[in-house]
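Final report, closing paragraph on structural work. Over the funding period we assembled a curated collection of sequence-structure pairs, and we close with a single example.
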Amino acid sequence: MNKIKIISNYQSEELYSLSKEFYNDFNYEKIGVNGNGNFYSFNFLNYIITDVKYKDIDIMIYLDEDCFIVNKTEFFNLLNYFLINDLDCIGMPDGGGCPD
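Its predicted structure, as stored:
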């Protein structure tokens, strides 16, 4: 079984708190990292990939602080698609959106 964790890089604790309510009941550990001070993009990803305290993560679900999951079924469908097809990375650019 894969060790899956949800990681968010946030600059606004208020926004992060609001968006996390949409997935707080998911059975994955949630890790919030304060991204203030230019700690985002590749700097952030490099930190997560290379820091030993995250070495037990098999799959990182990265959710930005402004990601609001409005359809949990589709979220899990996407995760299952990812796992079944043995993909390495899926996502969208910052500020992107997906229609239902």
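The chain has a mean pLDDT of 84. DSSP finds three helices and three strands in the chain. We thank the funder for supporting this effort.
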